[in-house]
Amino acid sequence: MATDAVTYLPGDILVKVDRAAMSASLETRAPFLDRRVVELAWRLPLDAKIRGRTGKRILRDILYRHVPRNLLERPKQGFAIPIDRWLRGDLRDWAENLLSSKQIAETECSTHARSRRCGEIINPRKTMPDGGSGRSS
Questions:
Q1: Does residue 52 share a domain with residue 75?
Q2: CB 115 within 8 A of CB 109
Q3: How far apart are CA 78 and CA 97, in angstroms?
Q4: Number of structural domains, the chain?
């Protein structure tokens, strides 16, 4: 818990949540990081926090009173987006237009002759003679 508090939370999880929220102009809160909650968690004995190999014991016990166990005790599902349904449905015209021969021909990166220039735009370090350092040789 101590290691997570000083490394994993501020250096990973909280940064990711903050960036994701900011990209969507959202304000987030971390209620379990309230000073009083953290102090209580530090005072609790380990067996109050973990049962066997299952953590979050207190939260689970509270949730079991209000939510059916079969909704809580199941494998993680992730957050897949229905991209196939979108591209076959509402976004079909947009995607077909974007990938049409005419649209591709009109893009700056459509021919082999232009590919070096596009490479410079996308990744200047790989195509610049000095490796992108800005120093002359």
A1: yes
A2: yes
A3: 31
A4: 3
For 39-69, what is each residue's pLDDT tens digit? Answer: 999 999 998 899 888 888 898 899 999 999 9
| Three-state DSSP class for residue 16 | helix
Range of the domain at 55: 45-79
Token pair listed for 99? 């990938």
Report the alpha-carbon distance of residue 33 to residue 5 in Å, rounded. Answer: 9
**Residue partners of 63: CB distance under 8 A and separation at least 6:** 72
Average pLDDT of the chain is 80
Q: What is the DSSP string of 34-81?
A: SHHHHHHHHHS-HHHH-BTTB--HHHHHHHHHHS-HHHHSS-------
Q: pTM for this one?
A: 0.46
Same domain, 50 and 75: yes
